């Protein structure tokens, strides 16, 4: 699912702190937020592309048309055109996603609340993770 939201200008995030409050572009702690971690793993990692995968749909003239993998970016920056460069921190975390080692450079920006709200109930594998997490909370 793709979702496009429009905000009134008075609600536009104008600082890096504003952006960080609503958008993430990195892995979350899989111990503290296991369900959201699995959703990110399932839905918010750009498919492997680049020279090793030249036939992926995102490839155009030998490059990813979406700009993946992104550069490591320690902090979010607001650029002169108003678009943020989201934080893709070089934290050393890499997770296996369908046999592909994905670090923060491959994470598609997401809003944790909306991702949880609109993805969780459509994936039965996530229900298993959620209930396993609840079981650990009650033991
Ligand atoms: Zn790509």
What is the gist of this entry?
The model has no long low-confidence stretch (mean pLDDT 88). The strands form 3 sheets. This protein has a two-stranded antiparallel ribbon. Strands 3-4 form a two-stranded antiparallel ribbon.
Q: Would you write up a description of this structure?
A:
By secondary structure, this protein is an alpha+beta fold. It contains four helices and six strands, in the order ααββββββαα. The chain has one domain. It has helices spanning 16-22, 34-43, 112-119, 124-137; strands at residues 59-60, 63-64, 77-78, 84-85, 95-97, 100-102. Strand 5 (95-97) and strand 6 form a beta hairpin. The longest helix is centred in the C-terminal third of the chain and has 14 residues, at 124-137. The mean pLDDT is 88. Zinc ion (ZN) is lined by residues 46, 49, 56, 58, 64, 66, 68. Zinc ion binds next to loops.
In DSSP terms, counting alpha (H) and pi (I) runs of 4 or more, how many helices? 4
Q: What share of residues is helical?
A: 25-40%
What ligands are attached or bound here?
A: zinc ion
Count up the domains: 1
Shape: globular
**How would you spell out the order of helices and strands?**
HHEEEEEEHH
Structural class of the helices, strands and pairings? Answer: alpha+beta
Ranges where pLDDT stays below 50 over 5 or more residues in a row are none
Strand content: 5-15%
């Amino acid at each position: 699912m793709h979702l496009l939201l429009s905000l009134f200008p008075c609600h536009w995030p104008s600082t890096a702190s504003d952006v960080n409050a609503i958008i993430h572009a990195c892995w979350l702690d899989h111990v503290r937020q296991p369900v959201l971690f699995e959703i990110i793993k399932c839905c918010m990692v750009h498919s492997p592309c680049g020279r090793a995968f030249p036939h992926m749909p995102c490839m155009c003239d030998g490059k990813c048309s979406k700009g993946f993998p992104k550069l490591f970016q320690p902090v979010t920056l607001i650029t002169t055109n108003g678009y943020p460069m989201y934080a893709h921190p070089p934290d050393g975390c890499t997770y296996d996603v369908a046999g592909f080692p994905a670090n923060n450079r491959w994470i598609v920006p997401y809003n944790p609340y909306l991702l949880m709200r609109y993805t969780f109930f459509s994936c039965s594998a996530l229900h298993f993770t959620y209930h396993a997490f609840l079981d650990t909370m009650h033991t």
